[in-house]
Amino acid sequence: MLKHHIFEYKEDFKLESGECLPGFNLNFTTYGTLNDRRDNVIWVCHALTANSDFTEWWPGLFGKGRLYDPSRYFVICANMLGGCYGSTGPLSINPKTGMPFFHDFPNLTNRDIVNAFDLLRQDLDIENVHTLVGGSLGGQHALEWVIKKPEIFNNLVVIASNAKHSPWGIAFNESQRQAIAMDLTWKLNTEKAGMNGMKVARSIALLSYRHYATYLATQEEENDDVKDNFKASSYQVYQGDKLAKRFNAFSYWTLSKAMDSHNLGRGRGGILKALQSIKAKALFVSITTDQLFPVSEQKFLADHVNDATFEIIDSSYGHDGFLIEAKQLTSAIANFYKENKLNPEIAR
């Protein structure tokens, strides 16, 4: 049974920027039961606009009869700091002013977000994580975390992610933030500020999440007489409207900035040295048509992490394939466990 919780951290939380948050909350979800040995923990790191309910956006991996069955595992996922699903973010009340942070919310890095996750882990008294799983931005968080706390994590599964956010990825994010900034409401301190700009930002993002083949298969017109109001056009509008119903421009801005900050080598003597410090058994998974996090980025990770496994999933869905191709992903992870003689059939 899914359970939802709130972790409250009441001390000042120092950020990489030198700024402080006056405490924070993390909204997190658990699924299953922690066994007596406390060694059946699966910790999930979610992607940019997702939430802590992993069964909602990754249903093919979690549930009865799935790879991560709650009868065997205790699964945890925390909504990241800066988001808008119960964890402290720009729309949260600043206890120093009694008003929402809005534009005054401090800049976050991925490392800040992971430091908050680790405070939750400590509060839960979890010292042994069977597998840390993350895709995209969540994969970046997972990598940061196994380097920060190498003794905690036994296995690492990273899908469609990288060691350092690329100039290509940063350019996409900056174009999205420019779209938000062009919205005349963005300078206002209201919950709906920048919302129309965020709709455009989502439309831009979707072009990096999907692939030419995806649009050709799903948005091609059925006849040659169409002159306007194309399916592909309405699809872009629909996706922007859909996100606007569940997200806000402040969190979108904050988390895209955090993604841009991703660099495992910062302050660690470079990326290669950081990757070589990973102790967990690692699986890196690529999507053949991923244009945002291309295969070369996961291959780089696998080449420089000790005794890592590398798998490629064939998909026409581009980067979003990491959310859609559950059957192939399940097979890749199950094979990883088998090849490394890891027993996924953990009992309570």
TrEMBL record:
This is Homoserine O-acetyltransferase. It comes from Agaribacillus aureus. Residues 41-324 form the AB hydrolase-1 domain. The keyword Transferase applies. SUPFAM superfamilies: alpha/beta-Hydrolases. HAMAP family: MetX_acyltransf (MF_00296). Gene3D superfamilies: alpha/beta hydrolase. Substrate binds at R202, D320. It holds the Pfam family Abhydrolase_1. The keyword Transport does not apply. It is found in: Cytoplasm. The gene is metX. Keywords: Acyltransferase, Amino-acid biosynthesis, Cytoplasm, Methionine biosynthesis, Transferase. Belongs to the AB hydrolase superfamily. MetX family. The active site is at S136 (nucleophile), D290, H319.
